[in-house]
Design brief:
The chain is an alpha+beta fold and 218 residues long. It has helices at 14-27, 86-99, 123-131, 189-194, 202-217; strands at residues 40-49, 52-61, 66-76, 107-111, 135-139, 146-147, 154-159, 162-168, 176-182. α2 runs parallel beside α3 (123-131). The protein is globular and about 45 Å long. The protein binds two DNA strands through residues 45-50, 81-84, 86, 89-90, 111-113, 116-117, 122-123, 137, 139-144, 177.
DNA sequence: GCGACAG
DNA sequence: ATCTTGTCGC
């Protein structure tokens, strides 16, 4: 068991989790995505409050800028927040919420990191493998890595000498970090971020709002 | 040993 | 991420 916390899955050791992450990292499929074929973009986020976790998934038509479908799932909080192990806390509920939508997204945005993780296996990697669909991790702050020289609205995010993602954001606005989850490459990401003009993606804003709203209701 | 640390 | 009042700045 991991020291310093109760309230976690019984029988799961830190070594088990690290091993699970290594397996996930080696299972990831980094292949170019067909951007032309992306019209439905999904976003998923989890809100934790009062011992419960609420996930909301939103399906968004990027062309008409309208919400096509919403889905939520609720569960008791199953795991504490441990930096580097967010997947234990949010993965299952995120996958449930996405599966509850009326159709599958062409690309799913996950609140959290993907490849930009100490073992290359952030929550966006797990969700992408579980659903076997293209995912990208979108995080509001950095877990690991260093940011290189900016060009236009993005700057490379490096772990050691390896490019694992980008810092993205327009001049004067809050930056965020984007990295591959599954079925997409790092090189795709600048074009992907251009889909929403390098601003923080509206579909994730909506997923965030929706998951908070669920907490207020029940 | 110390600091850093997605949500 | 949550718990939380008033307060400062665009």
């Amino acid at each position: 068991m991991v020291e310093g916390s109760r309230n976690r899955d019984p029988g799961v050791s830190l070594d088990d989790m690290i091993e699970e992450q290594r397996r996930a990292a080696s299972s990831v499929i980094l292949k170019p995505i067909d951007l032309e074929g992306v019209s439905l973009v999904g976003g998923v986020d989890v809100y934790h409050s009062g011992g419960y976790s609420h996930a909301s998934a939103i399906l968004y038509d990027i062309r008409s800028k309208t919400v096509v479908s919403r889905s939520s799932s609720l569960a008791e909080e199953v795991f504490p927040y441990l930096p580097g192990f967010l997947y234990r806390r949010e993965r299952r509920l995120m996958v449930e919420a996405v599966r509850g939508m009326e159709s599958s997204p062409d690309l799913l945005l996950v609140d959290g990191h993907g490849l930009a993780h100490p073992r290359g296996a952030g929550v966006a990697v797990f969700v992408g493998l579980d659903l076997m669909m293209p995912t990208v991790g979108i995080a509001k702050s950095l877990l690991v890595g260093r940011v290189g020289a900016r060009e236009n609205f993005h700057a490379p995010l490096m772990i050691d000498e390896r490019l694992v993602g980008y810092m993205v954001g327009r001049e004067g606005s809050k930056k965020y970090y984007i990295s591959p989850g599954n079925l997409i490459t790092v090189e795709d990401l600048p074009d992907v971020a251009s889909l929403w003009d390098f601003r923080y993606p509206e579909v994730l804003r909506e997923a965030d709002r929706e998951s908070r709203r669920k907490r207020m209701i029940g």
